[in-house]
Input
Amino acid sequence: MARVAIVTGGTRGIGEAISLALHEAGLTVAANYAGNEEKARAFTERTGIQSYKWDVSDFDACMAGVQQVEAELGPVDVLVNNAGITRDGTMKRMSRSMWDEVIDVNLGGCFNMAKAVFVGMSERKFGRIVNIGSINGQAGQYGQVNYAAAKSGIHGFTKALSQEGARAGITVNAIAPGYIDTEMVAAVPPEVLEKIVARIPVNRLGKAEEIARGVTFLCAEDAGFITGSTLSINGGQHMY
Ligand code: NDP
Output
């Protein structure tokens, strides 16, 4: 039987490329999304991959979402925690709700989703969890104390959970993407983006498929000795 994967935020951007890559690798994929119905419907029509709506920052919704996926597709073997948001602003302008939202979705979502699948993976003695961090969690970024803290937290979360999963055959790894050409980066003003690209040694933005390549590598059957690691995919911009 094909392995079952959940990709959070899996219907557009980097998540869409991850869903497609895992599907092409032979897995049965459930692509989660938050509320952009139009993109989710178009994605499912185009790819045949089922999409499921729930908010990863809502603990009960994650439990119910995983239950639904397991009832329809089978036990979850692979979890890719990709859903993420930004609410940028300098400390002076950052409100408490901008902080909470980013922490709750980016970092809280990883806890909620891992909590929902971890016991089942342990019982079946197999699991692959990949958390999408960020170069800005490794290096920090002006105007992003919330996002940098959440993404940096993901890297600590990964190292801790990998120790708990190791004996049960569950690997837990992170990918730290650099700047990737998605709608999230399209929101960055062009003059700022130009300066960012000038600092990337390969001299371009990354492609979503280049992150997906790392995910399929870490989720492979023969990747069982790779755990607790962070794979930086950033065109050489930051060497951690
Ligand atoms: P996009 O904004 O293009 O897509 C975000 C995805 O996450 C969407 O599918 C969205 O669903 C989903 N999502 C957002 N909030 C929630 C939520 N509360 N519950 C469930 N799903 C949610 O982002 P990217 O593809 O650019 O980024 C993907 C990941 O990669 C993020 O974690 C991001 O932080 C990280 N990253 C991105 C970089 C980049 O350069 N783009 C660089 C480094 C890291 P919906 O469609 O319904 O809105």
